[in-house]
Amino acid sequence: MTGRPINEDRQRAIALGLRTYTGLKHVKCDTTLRYVAGGGCVHCARIIATEQREARKYLQQIGALDVTAKDVEAMAIDNATEIEEEDEDSEAVRQARREASIDELM
Description:
Layout: H1 8-16, E1 20-22, E2 33-35, H2 42-62, H3 69-105
Antiparallel strand pairs: 1-2
């Protein structure tokens, strides 16, 4: 078998039917409690869930979640148009920079 070695603590937790186990330190938060199912950091997952919950509450307060599927589709089309326009603008900006740098070299 190739790849990363299987964590013994995780295997033990799987055998016991636990949801979490103590693994290696997480790079971002230095905690060691991890989920058995995917090996993700419990602390970071809780922070992300809290942030998403707060964002949903905020959006509900301002009424942004009361949109229909047609509204979402229209927003996607508008965003795609804006992105295309930005790409065209950025291409013009890049061309101008190229010409300016060539002028500086001469």
